[in-house]
Amino acid sequence: MDSNRILKIGLFGFGCVGQGLYDILAREKNLPFQIEKICVKDPAKVRPLPAEEFSFNPEEVLADDQLDLLVEAISDATEAYGIVTAALRKGRRVVTANKKLVAYHLPELLELQEQFGGVLLYEAAVAGGIPIIRTVEEYFSNEPLERVHGILNGSSNYILSQIFQKQKPYADALKEAQDKGFAELDPWLDVAGADSRHKLCILTAHAFGRTLAPQEVAFFGIDSLGNRDLEFARQNGSTIKLVASVHLTPEGEIVPLVLPSLVGDADDLKMVEQEFNGVVVQGGYSGPQLFKGKGAGGHPTGAAVLSDVISISNGYRYGYKKLQQRQAEPALALDFQIEVYLRTSDPNLLESLDFYRQRIIESAADSDSVVGMVTLESLLRNQDKIREAGAFILALSSDFASPKNVKKYEAVELS
Amino acid sequence: MDSNRILKIGLFGFGCVGQGLYDILAREKNLPFQIEKICVKDPAKVRPLPAEEFSFNPEEVLADDQLDLLVEAISDATEAYGIVTAALRKGRRVVTANKKLVAYHLPELLELQEQFGGVLLYEAAVAGGIPIIRTVEEYFSNEPLERVHGILNGSSNYILSQIFQKQKPYADALKEAQDKGFAELDPWLDVAGADSRHKLCILTAHAFGRTLAPQEVAFFGIDSLGNRDLEFARQNGSTIKLVASVHLTPEGEIVPLVLPSLVGDADDLKMVEQEFNGVVVQGGYSGPQLFKGKGAGGHPTGAAVLSDVISISNGYRYGYKKLQQRQAEPALALDFQIEVYLRTSDPNLLESLDFYRQRIIESAADSDSVVGMVTLESLLRNQDKIREAGAFILALSSDFASPKNVKKYEAVELS
């Protein structure tokens, strides 16, 4: 692209991310980018800009060869899929913030880029304003990584901070997260862990060279968090964070998992509060590196999109170096064991989990909390049952990779 | 460079960093790099490799056109200057880990690259294994930054952790840092803050487009830390960290400063312990981002050098985008005021500091501790006096940029 002229952007979606990008470009007048068209869905919706700035026809925007770059920032992953794949089929340069789209379709998106010569970047899709994909892709490209884990969902982290720091009820905290624009349109994605799962799939491709289908990742959320669970955490001197993690076993298999976790004072994730995200990359030589920054909000996410816009206009594309380098696709470590707390009122659930029940914490008639070891395979197989039962499951330490290092929980008798 | 062949590296220096790089390349056999020659100074020194792997003649290595890349990893900045400038005059691709060299000579190093077409990268020179230069240079290239601050010296941070966490005496902690290979050959550079100052100068060039001469930055260290100072910190519920910081004032001037600082529980730097470094980049849109990782040690620093080696072989060079973009060189905000604690037994020193003495904390005959506001100008003018007097100076919060936010210290009467 000619670097001396203003590059024209076609923007799809004008929600939190789209408006964030628009606002930054309006303020940073020396940047050589201009949003030429904004494509939105609903002509009737009241918007902060004059109607003539909007288009309601994606086909028209996709077909406009005057546009140098396309930015996809709509929340519906199916529509986003249609737009991004159509753009890539035209060999366009595209920036997306849609993690669900990338998580579900990465192999196809890679193929389309190869076939038609387009480019897709998606830094804003993982950990908001933190440049984690770029850092893993570029800086750690040749360092063997041992683990990548962290807090990848700003909305659920905000809720947990409100609950633990300010003793707010779950429902109030959720409403606040929505009011502040941290939550997905469908907040279930945030609080049930599905959004974290999407982001973990993307990170795993860059960090371990494995394109995981979301279905391969067991995920659990905070939507069934109850007072008994809070009490258990507090009595163990810990807070609870929703942790997404993937690590390599000594056998070269991977353990991807999204799971609420006890987080003690010495844990790097302890200081990640409110809408912040935090990612720890454990390098074979560098040791652990923590990246902490805002994981949600129009400006942080808009800044991440802008960084991709600038990179893509400079000819940057992800090299997917770990995918290129790997000799064989790492398998899932299905027999990996993790120590968890589980609260459920359903005795059948406990049975189907093949749970080595180390200690019964509580066995009142209406509730049953146990702590014990469970395999990744059992979590994958039983995750729907656990969700349907309204059970709450919690890792006893965010250090999933080293169960032997788990600080022994106190024997807590809940009343 | 031909990407299908093994690239030959000429390595200068075989201390902690050089051996770290050597060891990583020996383990990662699939990397297309080979250390062909190692140039060291002292032929008599016992080394862990056979004598024939070494050269003792830098001229010979510099003249060897068979070498694709040069890595400079010696501790003497004057010798490093000779080697790196000679290499750049030959248009070579050079990676250095020498922060003092880069801090003192950046304008000349930029000119030499422009004139002779060579390239110089130096990620390992700042914050060890954390990819902070690359991230500021690439990811934040078009975002206006408000502040960059953090803990940039692993050795002094290790010492402070040992003192605060394990109640070790200063001298024992320093010896440990040296034994573990975290300290500079001359540990004064670490503990007096000079090394942090070098790194701050480099960061300022990339973050604010201003090549600072080290002489423009007031620096204070932990070498005169006494028991009374520790008591003051503990009574304020804080620990002490050696903080390097540069921020932009509302008038567009910069405040660069290296100063021990009280760090409370809510401070992002609180969790940066032992030999770790931590850098907070405050972006205008992204908000604060913390990068935490190992700041010293052969493997983390060697991994940073390796990352530069890979980047340089792929054609990467720093764009110095903030230097290119800036309209005028930001001036020093000499009248900027910062709230500090000062302990000195020299009454003349207090007078020359033009100190607004808010509160006398102690006024025993042999010691005098005050807390008050002091200007950047006064710190620059009096820094040598403060050092010579063996005084200890401490910011009351690591948030230098917002003195109004300083949590009011308790009135502490030391016995």
From TrEMBL, chains A, B:
Q: Which PROSITE patterns match?
A: HOMOSER_DHGENASE
**InterPro entries, per database record:** Asp/hSer_DH_NAD-bd, HDH_cat, HDH_CS, NAD(P)-bd_dom_sf
Specify the protein name: Homoserine dehydrogenase
One of the record's GO molecular function terms:
NADP binding
List membrane-spanning regions. none
EC number of this enzyme: 1.1.1.3
Indicate the segments forming the Aspartate/homoserine dehydrogenase NAD-binding domain, all copies: 13-123
| UniProt keyword Amino-acid biosynthesis present | yes
Query: Can you tell me which family this protein belongs to?
Result: Belongs to the homoserine dehydrogenase family.
Looking at its record, which EC class is this enzyme?
A: oxidoreductase
Q: Which reaction does it catalyse?
A: L-homoserine + NADP(+) = L-aspartate 4-semialdehyde + NADPH + H(+)
Has keyword Protease? no
Which keywords does this Swiss-Prot/TrEMBL entry list? Amino-acid biosynthesis, Methionine biosynthesis, NADP, Oxidoreductase, Threonine biosynthesis
| Residue ranges of domain Homoserine dehydrogenase catalytic in the record | 131-310
Q: Which Gene3D superfamilies match?
A: Dihydrodipicolinate Reductase, domain 2, NAD(P)-binding Rossmann-like Domain
GO biological process: what's one of them?
methionine biosynthetic process
> Which pathway does the UniProt entry assign to this protein?
Amino-acid biosynthesis; L-threonine biosynthesis; L-threonine from L-aspartate: step 3/5; Amino-acid biosynthesis; L-methionine biosynthesis via de novo pathway; L-homoserine from L-aspartate: step 3/3
